[in-house]
Description:
By secondary structure, this protein is α+β, with helices and mostly antiparallel strands. It is 30% helix and 30% strand. The protein has 4 helices and 4 strands; from the N terminus they run βαββαβαα. Strand 2 and strand 3 form a beta hairpin. The protein starts with 12 loop residues before the first strand and ends in a 6-residue tail after the last helix.
Amino acid sequence: MTTTTTTTTTTKPVIVISTFPDKDSLANTANQIVKEKLAACVNVIDITSTFFWEGKIENTPEYLALFKTTEKNKEALKERIDSTHPYDVPEIAEIMPSSLNEPYLKWLIESTSATTSSSSSTNTNTNS
């Protein structure tokens, strides 16, 4: 049985999503964000988006990024995504999970804190 936990306001998990036109721009942004501890990890999904842009319908391959962070880091994370994003009008949306399993939430909080305990660096399988 997987346990879940209730969190304080600053440690609530948040998933910020954004789409990118290519893997390079996404990788550059993701690496910077993880290095700065604004997100614990970034998942990348290859997608096709259909949308109306500049008078026509577009069907465009894109990369969907799921930035996993905490409530205390979400505004700085969204600002960093916006400042490094190649699109004129980037999608930057947040999802608030109501609960996460305890070990993953602990790892998420540790990975987005200014100081990280040694236990998070020895975790070899977080299944981000």
